[in-house]
Amino acid sequence: MIYDITPPMTESLAVWPGDTPLSREVLSDISDGAVSTSSAMHTTAHLGAHADAPSHILPDGPPIDQRALDLYLGPCQVARVPVSPGDLVTPEIWTAPIAAERLLVVTDTYDHQGPFSQDFAALAPEFADRIHREGVRLVGVDTPSVDLFAAEDLPTHRRLMAHDMAILEGLVLRDVPDGIYELIALPLKLVGFDASPVRAILRAL
Question: Is 56 labeled as catalytic in the residue annotation?
Answer without folding.
Answer: yes
